[in-house]
């Protein structure tokens, strides 16, 4: 099982895959931010962040309000044959949990593996006109680290790395 196979599962049935706000460009930006968070905090796992990034918006059907998209992404995660092969069953469950609750979920400083996934997505909120506030974050909340990550997320949202680069970085993250 491979990362491109997980991406293929996410792409299959993705209504907004080409969307600038919620499609693959955004997924790649979230993955890049997740990788950066994992490098900054030893409690965070890069592979969990990337798996979350691939799946979290894969079943979104609206550019605006879509309260069920997290639960739909969690169903993809739970139904995946690739995800548990890549991460193991218990870590795949964490990805499903993060997908399910990422939209409006409370910060999770008690669970940095899930909280980092929320953070990776929330750092990119500027793309939809929302100014991220530290109180909604789990792992990187304090200045100057928060401001530096926000600047990185803004840059990477405009020009995220491609999937092969993201997947290759998991070997060194």
Number of helices: 9
| CATH topology description | Hypothetical protein af1432
Total strands: the figure is 0
Helix percentage range: 55-70%
Instruction: Give the C-alpha Rg.
Output: 14 Å
Overall number of structural domains? 1
Order of helices and strands: HHHHHHHHH
N-C termini distance: 19 Å
In round numbers, the mean pLDDT is 95
**CATH architecture identity:** Orthogonal Bundle
- Sheet/helix structural class: mainly alpha
Low-pLDDT stretches are none
The major beta sheet can be summarized as: none
Characterize the overall form: globular
CATH class: Mainly Alpha
Q: How much β-strand is present in the residues? A: under 5%
Question: How would you describe this structure to a colleague?
Answer:
- The structure is a single chain.
- The protein is mostly helical and 173 residues long.
- It has one domain: Hypothetical protein af1432, CATH 1.10.3210.
- The chain has helices at 3-11, 24-40, 46-55, 69-79, 82-87, 89-101, 112-122, 145-158, 163-169.
- Helix 2 runs antiparallel to helix 3 (46-55) and helix 3 crosses helix 6.
- It is globular and about 40 Å long.
């Amino acid at each position: 099982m491979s990362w491109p196979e997980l991406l293929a599962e996410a792409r299959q049935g993705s209504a907004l895959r080409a969307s600038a706000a919620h499609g693959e460009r955004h997924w790649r930006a979230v993955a890049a931010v997740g990788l950066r968070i994992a490098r900054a905090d030893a409690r965070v796992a890069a592979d969990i962040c990337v798996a979350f990034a691939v799946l979290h918006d894969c079943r979104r059907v609206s550019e605006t309000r879509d309260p069920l998209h997290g639960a739909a992404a969690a169903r993809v995660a739970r139904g995946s044959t690739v995800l548990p092969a890549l991460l193991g069953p218990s870590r795949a469950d964490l990805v499903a949990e993060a997908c399910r609750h990422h939209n409006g979920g409370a910060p999770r400083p008690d669970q940095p593996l899930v909280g980092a996934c929320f953070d990776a997505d929330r750092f990119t909120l500027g793309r939809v006109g929302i100014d991220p506030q530290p109180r909604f974050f789990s792992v990187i909340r304090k200045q100057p680290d928060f401001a530096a990550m926000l600047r990185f997320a803004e840059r990477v949202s405009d020009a995220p790395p491609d999937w092969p680069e993201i997947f290759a970085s998991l070997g060194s993250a």
